Amino acid sequence: MAKKILVVDDEPDVLKILLLRLNKTGYETIGARDGREALEMARQIIPDLIILDFHMPDMNGDEVARILKEDKDLKHIPILLISATVTSVAQRAEECGADGYIAKPFQPKELISAVKKMLEQSESVNLKKEMDHGSKDSSSR
Length: 141
Fold this sequence. Notes:
Blueprint: E1 4-8, H1 12-24, E2 28-32, H2 35-45, E3 49-53, H3 61-70, E4 79-83, H4 86-96, E5 100-103, H5 108-139
Parallel strand pairs: 1-2, 1-3, 3-4, 4-5
Helix pairs in contact: 2-3, 3-4
């Protein structure tokens, strides 16, 4: 089953390109154009990864990331923050709880590599949690 990726960017052309590139790579993609729509979509579809633009009107990417990371049902979803402001994106990503970042402009291979890495890390963490949970269940019997 294809991994679901929620892509959030207020620039329609950038959003379209990101969705197409990820679809071509085999991911199921859903697009959102602002922070509020991103929060709605995340709650509806529970994606495997969220790619989130930093600079958006109304609600910046760091605000969206904080809300997602405070939500008990969504906090496990890895967030890849993207931004054209390289100097502050690393610090902002860390402050808001994003799991990674990538600076615009980026090469398609760079994006796909970051996506694969984050999904693999997330899968590894989830598998470990399942194993830990399973061993606790069997030890409590």
